[in-house]
Design goal:
By secondary structure, the protein is an alpha+beta fold. It has 4 domains: 9-95, Uridine Diphospho-n-acetylenolpyruvylglucosamine Reductase, domain 2, CATH 3.30.43; 99-217, Uridine Diphospho-n-acetylenolpyruvylglucosamine Reductase, domain 3 (2-Layer Sandwich); 222-331, Alpha-Beta Plaits (2-Layer Sandwich); 338-447, Alpha-Beta Plaits (2-Layer Sandwich), CATH 3.30.70.2740. The chain has helices at residues 9-16, 25-31, 52-65, 117-126, 143-149, 156-159, 194-198, 232-245, 256-266, 289-305, 317-328, 330-334, 351-365, 394-414, 439-452; strands spanning 21-22, 45-47, 69-72, 89-92, 99-103, 108-112, 129-130, 166-173, 178-181, 206-214, 216-217, 222-229, 248-255, 278-285, 310-313, 340-345, 370-376, 381-387. The strands form 4 sheets. A 7-stranded antiparallel β-sheet has the order 15-12-14-13-17-18-16, sandwiched between helices. A hairpin with a 4-residue loop joins strand 17 (370-376) and strand 18 (381-387). Helix 1 runs antiparallel to helix 3 (52-65). It starts with 8 loop residues before the first helix and ends in a 14-residue tail after the last helix. Keywords: FAD, Flavoprotein, Oxidoreductase.
């Protein structure tokens, strides 16, 4: 990557039209960063294309000028994968937000990269179908960004990651070439599936401009339970007990400090009077009274075993939504504290011992820092958030957190886990990639990037350095 200035703005405007290229300070700040706050944005300009052809033209121009591009979706990332820090051109895909070519037989729909997740969810619901990938940022995250980070969220235990719902995608590579990958096929054993290389590549191989997304049958009436539990091992016992009797669509957890912050700042009531160290939130379909009876029986058994201290179950859609907000509003609520995030995972069977070790290290290392735990514990993924104390210099805070992260990642490595279960690597986790990937794997990834992006202009410096 070269740190060249942007090409003449007139050339960009000739591609996208007047009023769609921005260099003012507010736009550079808005489009040049994601939800992380550790890296100040410093793009040279922001451009908003409205078509695949315009994206190709921008990439051709950038390649000719040796100018780096940072693709920008909903800017809800949590690993600084969408931050432009070195004078890059931000290519924001907000205008490419059309949903087209719905096929009720195949249950597929073609989406522009700028389609917002909630927009696709609502479209699916209007057809009597369901798009199951869901998370707190569904109201602002975009499909292209979801694909680029292989977004997971709260339904992974039942429905998998974004990867599982991408039937095909179109990518503009670093040379401006358009690749049409898989084309919606269910079966396609014709060599390497390049689609899956692009999913989770964080924009380092090119710009995702369009995707054919798979939809699913709509779920039946959903019930939500919130349970207070005494410790993390109890969480896993509760998970095992409920999975034996019910098909869960979600199993989440959060800590008392997380709940306290959400209740205080979002105006939500506590789920019940009993205060517990941790809380489990689970969701399941009610196909009849038998499911509710089974849920209540398991609840009583868990109380009898001492795994559950108290609990509540939704009696209406509004109550279910409010219970979900106790979990889903955590990230937004703690953002003002500039949290240092560790998004780690291991296989589900190892989670109890894994969490015991991680929690012990964290508590010993951060006796004066506020720790917020939450995550998708049903699929082995937990989010560890350390809140920055007021008045502490952000660089010093990041340095202190980074030192302890190495201790946490040593545990992750021993358990064969991931240092970034769903948020991606970006800039925030780049220095720790070797804890989850071997040198041979990293070198192969570099070679793949060179094949897609020989000049290294696509989101350079993210995941690894060339």
């Amino acid at each position: 990557m070269a740190d060249n200035p942007c090409p003449p703005l007139a050339q960009l405007e000739a591609i996208v039209g007047a009023g769609r290229v921005f260099t003012d300070a507010d736009s550079l700040e808005h489009y040049g960063r994601d939800w992380t706050r550790f890296y100040p944005p410093a793009p040279c300009a922001v451009v908003l294309p409205g078509s695949i052809e315009e994206v190709q033209a921008i990439v051709h121009l950038a390649a000719a000028e040796n100018l780096a591009i940072v693709p920008s979706g909903g800017r809800t990332g949590l690993s600084a994968g969408g931050v432009a820090t070195r004078g890059e051109l931000v290519l924001a895909l907000d205008r490419m937000n059309r949903i087209e070519d719905f096929n009720p037989v195949d249950r597929t729909v073609r989406c522009g990269a700028g389609v917002v997740t909630e927009q696709l969810q609502q479209f699916a619901a209007d057809q009597g179908l369901f798009y199951p990938v869901d998370f707190a940022s569904s109201g602002s995250s975009q499909i292209g960004g979801n694909i680029s980070t292989n977004a997971g969220g709260i339904k992974v235990i039942r429905h998998g990651m974004t990867r599982d719902w991408v039937a095909g995608l179109k990518l503009v590579t670093g040379t401006g070439e358009l690749l049409d990958l898989n084309r919606g096929l269910v079966k396609n054993n014709t060599g390497y599936d390049l689609r899956h290389l692009v999913i989770g590549a964080e924009g380092t191989l090119g710009v995702v401009v369009e995707a054919t997304m798979q939809l699913d049958q709509a779920p039946k009436d959903l019930a939500v339970m919130v349970l207070g539990v005494p410790d993390m091992p109890a969480l896993m016992r509760v998970l095992g007990a409920f999975r034996e009797q019910l098909t869960l669509s979600a199993f989440e957890f959060f800590s008392e400090p997380a709940l306290a912050k959400v209740v205080a700042h979002q105006g939500l009531p506590r789920p019940f009077e009993t205060e517990a160290p941790y809380y489990a939130l689970l969701e399941f379909e009610q196909s009849g009274e038998v499911d509710m009876d089974a849920a209540m029986a398991v609840f009583e058994d868990c109380v009898g075993e001492g795994w559950v201290l108290d609990g509540t179950i939704s009696q209406s859609l509004t109550q279910a939504e409010n219970l979900w907000r106790l979990r889903e509003d955590i990230s937004e609520t703690i953002t003002p504290w500039t949290p240092y995030k560790n998004d780690i995972s291991t296989v589900i069977s190892k989670v109890p011992d894994f969490l015991d070790e991680v929690e012990a290290v964290v508590n010993a290392a951060y006796p004066d820092f506020e720790i917020i735990w939450f995550g998708h514990i049903g699929d082995g993924n937990v989010h560890l958030n350390i809140l920055k104390p007021e008045g502490l210099d952000i660089d010093l805070f990041r340095e202190q957190c980074g030192e302890v992260s190495k201790l946490v990642f040593d545990i992750v490595q021993r358990y064969g886990g991931s240092v970034s279960a769903e948020h991606g690597v970006g800039l925030l986790k780049k220095d720790y990639l070797q804890y989850s990937r071997s040198p041979a794997e990293i070198e192969i990834m570099r070679q793949i990037k060179r094949a897609f992006d020989p000049q290294g202009i696509m989101n350079p410096g993210k995941i690894f350095d060339l």
